[in-house]
Amino acid sequence: xxxxxxxxxxxxxxxxxxxxxxxxxxxxxxxxxxxxxxxxxxxxxxxxxxxxxxxxxxxxxxxxxxxxxxxxxxxxxxxxxxxxxxxxxxxxxxxxxxxxxxxxxxxxxxxxxxxxxxxxxxxxxxxxxxxxxxxxxxxxxxxxxxxxxxxxx
Length: 153
Hints:
The chain has helices at about 5-10, 15-25, 30-35, 45-55, 70, 85-105, 110-115, 115-130, 135-150. By secondary structure, the chain is an all-alpha fold. It has nine helices and no strands.
């Protein structure tokens, strides 16, 4: 894990920790570490809800807990000045969320296989992703189907 990521993880607030994780979720080691340890401070359903919220966030407000220097040590970036900029920012957030879901399904599928309500919530979320992100959605659904087949064996 890089030094900056190690500094950013030091948090005792669930929402702040989650948002910090999303800032650095391109780091595969951090992603795996987070997915191994998140159960110590939250439930799988809460993590999925946070991902769903982050995926669909519009610029009418800030995500919970995202308050300037509390997240990254820097001032909160200004809201995008145009619809085009807003769409680019939202697309980047969605790509990060999809990356987290991919890792979660790939390495920790049992979270979903053990909880029917969580599985139903995930399937509904994946339907939304399929509509918005034509390439990523079907890929995630295939991963889910593959995990379901393995868990039934």
